[in-house]
UniProtKB/TrEMBL annotation:
Thioredoxin domain residues: 3-169
UniProt name for this protein: Glutathione-dependent peroxiredoxin
Residues annotated as the enzyme's active site: C56
Function: Thiol-specific peroxidase that catalyzes the reduction of hydrogen peroxide and organic hydroperoxides to water and alcohols, respectively. Plays a role in cell protection against oxidative stress by detoxifying peroxides.
InterPro entries, sorted: PRX5-like, Redoxin, Thioredoxin-like_sf, Thioredoxin_domain
A Pfam family matched in the record: Redoxin
Domain of life: Bacteria
Family: Belongs to the peroxiredoxin family. Prx5 subfamily.
Length: 169
């Protein structure tokens, strides 16, 4: 059973590759608790089956990067891209697509958060292991306000334009 609108997202640890060290975050992978990250914030989050995969790299992530300023203007504090990859892969993927901090690329390396959300997608038979279903959501202080889950792996309802329209309405 997957998470639903009106429910609070579960806590888990997500990792982010930090390219430039700051006082609070050293360079390299840094772990963050979802409960801390969502506190008091409005977050547009989307998940992809895998970094560097065709639809994810050519459409899904670039769509959110292109609309980042519009999401901010609509009151969204952060945009997250979550994938069942490690933080090094997510960092390299963001660099390859010139994300430049417009979207936080958060790794759920062992699919812990994805499974708690009930949005895992088992691609073991294809040699890809457990991945995340493609989805987008609007979180407000950790509560799901909008949720768009793709059931066929395609990109029809979890795209940036759809979630942005939902945020703006």
């Amino acid at each position: 059973m997957s998470i639903s609108v009106g429910e609070r997202v579960p806590d888990a640890t997500l990792s982010e590759y930090i390219e430039t060290a700051t006082e609070s975050c050293p360079m390299g992978p840094n772990n963050f608790q979802v409960a801390d990250l969502v506190k008091g914030k409005k977050i547009a989050v989307f998940a992809v089956p895998g970094a560097f995969t065709p639809t994810c790299s050519e459409q899904h992530l670039p769509g959110f990067v292109a609309k980042a300023d519009e999401f901010k203007a609509a009151g969204v504090d952060e945009i997250w891209c979550v994938s069942v990859n490690d933080a090094f892969v997510m960092g390299a993927w963001g660099k390859s697509l010139n994300v430049n901090g417009k979207v936080r690329l958060l790794a759920d390396g062992s699919a812990v958060w994805t499974k708690k959300l009930g949005l895992e997608f088992d691609l073991t038979a294809k040699g890809l292991g457990v991945r995340s279903k493609r989805f987008s959501a609007l979180l407000d202080d950790g509560v799901v306000k909008q949720l768009n889950i793709e059931n066929d792996g395609g990109l029809h309802t979890s795209d940036a334009d759809t979630l942005l329209k939902q945020v703006q309405s």
